Amino acid sequence: MTLFRGRRILAGAMTLVAAAALAACGSKTTDEKVSAGVTADTSGDTVKVGLLNSLSGTMAISEVTVRDSIMLAIEEINTAGGVLGKKIQPVGEDGASDWPTFAEKAEKLIREDRVAAVFGCWTSASRKAVKPVFEKHKALLFYPVQYEGLEQSPYIFYTGATTNQQIVPGLDYLKAQGAKSLYLVGSDYVFPRTANKIIKAYAEANGMTVLGEEYAPLGSTEFGTITNKVKSSGADAVFNTLNGDSNVAFFKEYKSAGLTATSMPVVSVSIAEEEVKSIGTQYLEGQLTAWNYYQTTPGAANEKFVAAYKAKYGKDKPTSDPMEAAYVSVYLWKAMVEKAGTFEVEQVRKASDGITFEAPEGLVTVDGATQHIAKTARVGKVGPDGLITEVWNSGKPITPDPYLKSYPWAGGLS
Amino acid sequence: MTTVARDSRTVVDPAPPPAKPAAGPSRHRFRAVAGFAFGAALLFAVAPLVLSDFRLSLLAKYLCVAMVAIGIGLAWGRGGMLALGQGVFFGLGGYAMAMHLKLADAGPGNMPDFMLLYGQLDELPLWWRPFASPWFALPATVLLPMAVAFVLGSLVFRRRVRGAYFAILSQALAAAMVILLIGQQGTTGGTNGLTDIQGFFGYDLDDPVNQRMVYFIIAGTLLALLALARHLMQCRYGELLVAVRDGEERVRFLGYDPATVKLVAYVVAAGMAGLAGALFVPAVGIISPALIGIVPSIEFVIGVAVGGRATLLGPVLGAVAVAWARTALSERFPGGWTYLQGLLFVVVVAFLPGGLASLIGLARRGDGERWFGRLRRTRRTEGQAS
């Protein structure tokens, strides 16, 4: 079949258009970056902030609780008069447990809604997907979940723990308890793989042996083989970085293999009160978790937070570490804005250093250099009522060190 | 599947449908050229003027999905191969492009940022190296998916694997590819994928002007792929493909090799998906396993089904409509948009089995005939109408 003349004309026209488009090109990568970013719209008597969490998909179960506690903080702040005299107006978007969707929604919040700050994201993959968006538009993200460290973006405030505030103290605790050998079990994605690399470096430097390392795909429920390997290894303790539903299957299998918290304790870093409830207390009783906050953490600030949360969302709803970190992040942003006297992002960043807040977990301080937060590390034991009771804490807030620069054994990691 | 069986009349029935005026080839030509001109005007003039930069970048993303849809329309609508694993080819194209752009960002001799972070490698892995050259990476975005499709297709079609078995097989391939990518975090970025892509052949992607340029390239490519698909559908090969779909054994007895006929459509569809993936990367700035697994592969097919799989424009319209509805609904109802999306699919499948494209046919013959009788006829004439 021959080409029609009409199509040839069309092809010619298209080439011309393409050429015109190419001729009208903008700056090269070698040019100086001049992008001024997007300025937030604060002209009215309200100020918009973005809430970016998964309300659908596999992560929804965890992220909805974070959304709820952010809303609680916003409500409290608005009742108390808002920020710089403006009421906060939340704009919610659904990240749908899909990383590129997170990037799209972040862009929408920044460019279309012109929000002053965005609160949210859970998985590291979603954070990695939105990071370039926030850096491109010079907008602020408050990320409320513990993560694998090795990151420091000028436009992200990390209000969850980095590795030296959760995993390393957890390992210190195990070492103090006399554990000489570890078995690592994790979901197959970035956080467990990176966390395990750090754990192996720690173990090597501290005379511990890592007897094995197993990964299960996210959402996997097949743990027979892994549990058998763990059992036959005879390790002193298991370090668990599994996420989500996999924990249910893993702990059921673990119990039916005859393993208990006394014979071979499991330290988990992704199981909080909400997850304990869904896994079932009978499988978890006596097992350990490493966090910065538990619902049982003593203090007036926490009593107030727990009471307010239960009053708003129901008596049976527990509070957990990521929820607390999300709640705190809104108050920290408020404090930064008030110190800066403006919503302007660069001024807010400059004002961030040294901001403190009497949080439910205790006093937290923003470290301006890393944009992480000094937090107290805690290790807790799951009780028969599904709540977690603290068995150890670091005594004082630990200065964040996302790249583990102050730990000689971590030299080869980043 | 029942619709495919009913469609078999398109080939066997030699009489043109009565409601359709006898259109000469010149009229077809005129209509096609006018259609393309209209599409070009819409994409190149109206959209950039009406839409904000952000919405335009979203449209660029939708158009990439539409490119995959054109290929699925060819392989599934015309060839009867339910390709449920197009994400693999989209991913191959996307990763090939992203690998090149990451290496270009890092500069000659340097390693991409994520490798330093997760990999603990001393030097660039061997299989990354060729992608440093655009002369390798650019052709690879299309040829790599086509080669994989060729190998897979040759094995599968020769053994006469078809129907649900083919669909399951292609789906398994998508799942396998995701597991492979996630497992190799140090060299593929794992679940994160390849993110934070700064430049596109020397042009800074942060600059809105360059983003616009990427949009224009995508729009132009889409039109070119449409022209290619139209050519394939209208030439002798296109008729043979429909014949294979409707009666593979009969075609075999006529002396043709159905396996080769199917293979061509499958390989072309893979090439289109690869190109779409390659252009998706500069438009969105990320490629990750989340974009190429089972769920996104099915979403590609849903767009085609909603639009009308056997037509030329149906898959494009369907893909854009579904992607746009996803954005619009989730912005308006962040809590419950998935229900609305599901409702939309149910409504289309139940009341408009020929897809959105059959609406055009309905509007064209707006007499008082009953809906369903008309729908059936629309579907019969789809082969000629496109």
UniProtKB/TrEMBL annotation, chain A:
It holds the Pfam family Peripla_BP_5. Residues 1-23 form the signal peptide. PROSITE patterns: PROKAR_LIPOPROTEIN. It comes from the Bacteria. Keywords: Signal. InterPro entries: ABC_urea-bd_UrtA, Peripla_BP_I. Transmembrane segments: none annotated. This is Urea ABC transporter substrate-binding protein.
TrEMBL record, chain B:
It is found in: Cell membrane. The keyword Protease does not apply. Residues 1-10 have a biased composition (Basic and acidic residues). The chain crosses the membrane at residues 30-50, 56-76, 83-101, 135-157, 164-183, 213-229, 263-288, 300-325, 337-363. This is Urea ABC transporter permease subunit UrtC. Residues 1-26 are annotated as: Disordered. Coiled coil: none annotated. It is a multi-pass membrane protein.
